[in-house]
């Protein structure tokens, strides 16, 4: 994973005034935003390495809530420090060992219980970005209670079972992502055709780099804006189709 692809897309973000609020769910803190009307549909958002308080992730939570879903982003790092753009790249592998995106099952169960028992949710989808995209891919292989998933530029790479999705899953990639090659994407597509028994979709957005889809409007470059907005529409459409 190139340092450039971790730091550059996330530096110097503008401030964002959130629409939701923070809650405590057992041992987890979380950011929640609700739509203006009552609903029994919910979406879990899994943050990237920059954590649950990162402004771009909260913007996405609010965006999804605006489409009619109780939307929640828990702190999947359980109070530990997220990665920061000022951290030293040689330390990243060690940081990842303590923040494994394949070890999120317990936290997912805690949040699912909260959404069902405290929010009245009956259908629950999940969306994740980068680190969170890997977590979503993992959870869509393990947790049948997640009605649908969207993994944005994050995939499980080292499991023989990674193609046997339990429920509909959409994979979003940038063409110029330094962390996921086009060959890896083609392999994923080929294997899903062979082994996957549920609806899935893979889409690559031209010219886009790692992290492109979670930028706030004021941080978008004009040439990238159409692809960012398209990816967001596609993400919402997938959720609406199944959740």
**What is the strand arrangement across the widest sheet?**
1-2-4-3-5-6-7-8
Strand content: 15-25%
The count of β-strands is 8
Q: Sheet with the most strands?
A: 8 strands, mixed
Mean pLDDT: 91
The unreliable regions are: 1-14
Secondary structural class: alpha/beta
**Count of DSSP helices?**
7
- Secondary-structure element order, as H and E? HEEEHEHHEHEEHEH
> How far from one another are the termini?
33 Å
What overall geometry do the principal axes of the alpha carbons give?
A: globular
Q: Which range best describes the helical content: under 10%, 10-25%, 25-40%, 40-55%, 55-70% or over 70%?
A: 25-40%
**Radius of gyration in whole Å, from Cα?**
17 Å
GO molecular function: hydrolase activity
Subcellular location: Cytoplasm, Cytosol
Pfam family, one: DLH
InterPro entries: AB_hydrolase_fold, CMBL, Dienelactn_hydro
């Amino acid at each position: 994973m190139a340092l450039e692809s971790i730091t550059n897309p996330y530096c110097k973000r503008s401030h964002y005034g959130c629409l939701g609020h923070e809650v405590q769910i057992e041992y987890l803190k979380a950011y929640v935003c609700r739509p203006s009307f009552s609903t029994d549909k919910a979406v879990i958002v899994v943050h990237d390495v920059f954590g649950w308080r990162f402004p771009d992730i909260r913007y996405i939570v609010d965006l999804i809530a605006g489409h009619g879903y109780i939307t929640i982003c828990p702190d999947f790092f359980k109070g530990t420090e997220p990665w920061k753009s000022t951290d030293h790249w040689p330390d990243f592998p060690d940081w990842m060992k303590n923040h494994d995106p394949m070890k999120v099952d317990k936290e997912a169960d805690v949040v699912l219980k909260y959404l069902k028992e405290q929010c009245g949710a009956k259908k629950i989808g999940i969306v994740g970005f980068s680190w969170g995209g890997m977590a979503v891919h993992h959870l869509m292989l393990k947790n049948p209670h997640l009605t649908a998933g969207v993994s944005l530029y994050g995939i499980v790479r080292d499991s023989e079972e990674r193609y046997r999705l339990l429920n509909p899953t959409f994979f979003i990639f940038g063409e110029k992502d330094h962390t996921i090659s086009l060959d890896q994407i083609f392999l994923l597509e080929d294997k899903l055709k062979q082994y996957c028994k549920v609806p899935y979709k893979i889409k690559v957005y031209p010219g886009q780099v790692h992290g492109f889809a979670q930028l706030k409007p004021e941080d978008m470059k004009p040439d990238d804006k159409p692809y960012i907005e398209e990816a967001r529409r596609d993400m919402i459409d997938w959720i609406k189709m199944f959740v």
